[in-house]
Write a structure and sequence with these properties.
By secondary structure, the chain is α/β, with parallel strands linked by helices. Helix content is 46%, strand content 13%. The chain has an eight-stranded parallel beta sheet with strand order 1-13-12-11-10-9-8-2. A three-stranded antiparallel beta sheet has the order 4-5-6, with no helix packed on it. α6 crosses α7. It starts with a helix and ends with a helix.
Length: 359
Amino acid sequence: MTTLRDDLVTALRRSGPTKVHVDYVFCPSQIENFRKLFGHDDYETYFGLSHRKIEIPVKKNYTDGQKHFPREILPDSTVFDEYGIGHSKGSELAFHMTRMHHPLKGASVEEILKYPYPEVDLSRMPEFQNKIENIHSAGLAAFGFMQMTVFEASWYLRSMEDLMTDMLTESIEGTLLLDKITEFACAKAKEYALAGTDILSLGDDIGTQNSLMIDEPTWEKWLQPRLKKVIDTAREINPDILIFYHSCGFITPFIEKLIETGIDILNPIQPECMDFNEIYDRFGDRLSFWGTLGTQQLLPYGTKEEVRRIALSRLEKCGRRGGIVIGPTHMVEPEVPWENLIAITEAATEYEMRHSANS
């Protein structure tokens, strides 16, 4: 019997799946709204997701985040992630958005070398392996979340200004930092592959709303080889692992190189920045897509019928061979109405019924 996991892999390999696969990621307020409607928060089962997202256990190697900000006075409310990057909330209206504080902004070579970078918590890997086995036992695919792979983690630590300057001036500070982060990313990729992850989700935002964030030669010199090293690390262990890559914004000029680097799935194809039909016509024979339904305009402000029609058009464009997981391009924010989320699953059902009747 074909499982949802098997059929999702078939879809992502563009080999003729039997069903349409969807994805949603809810923000906290949307989870709360869902709980009020249904009395639980398992929206992934409700929407029939074929995968479950899972993050590898990571050990932070610092005890006092404030200690690593000798050049900045932080707000009292600042919290620190596993990298020691500071996050402070600017406003309740910002919801889950935070202001970022960069511990290695202005740092010397010595500070970069001595910084307490995180590492994979190998003591918890048996527990992690068990989680993946449980996901597989349920007939679902394990989706390993490893975005913020090289570029983002590096500039979050050092600041965008400093890291861009490092790359343009070919400074030793930038080289050392990028290599440290790549080493950590490779360690995670290795353990994800060993644990049996089906889809490895990488990503670094390299596009803005209307243009590239970084020029192509700089990306090719500094970031592409490091991304390839991460992908190759996973594929040396599991050649069949599917590589998912996320970048917001306009990234069309990078897509060919991303395919060459080893990605199988591109997310999110943000419709405010790129035309899905154009991207599909150019790359759909070599690439699958995940997302495509805009959370800036379509989902919060479109009608239910508009959402259903556009979702259906995406599915028709990809056709019976698959190559798409349909859903919002980003986390579903508070202003997205429930009926527009339901419209996506209705489009999936309509497509399945239409083509089942024609088969």
